[in-house]
Specification:
- The protein has a 3-stranded antiparallel beta sheet.
- The protein has 2 helices and 3 strands, in the order βββαα.
- By secondary structure, the protein is α+β, with helices and mostly antiparallel strands.
- The chain is 33% helix and 22% strand.
Length: 49
């Protein structure tokens, strides 16, 4: 995980997601579309590979 600026935003490489601390604390969902998330999940290697 990489922390940017004054610590208000994060990049989570395993999720390929830019997040804000405020968004995480507020419980905001990702802006990712369900189709995009499904495509990303299908492209990931199975656990243990």
């Amino acid at each position: 995980m990489e922390i940017f600026g004054d610590g208000a935003s994060l990049f989570w490489p395993d999720l390929d997601e830019d997040l804000t601390v405020a968004g995480l604390l507020a419980g905001r969902r990702s802006g990712e579309s369900p189709q995009s998330l499904k495509k990303w999940l299908e492209a990931r290697p199975a656990e243990g590979e």
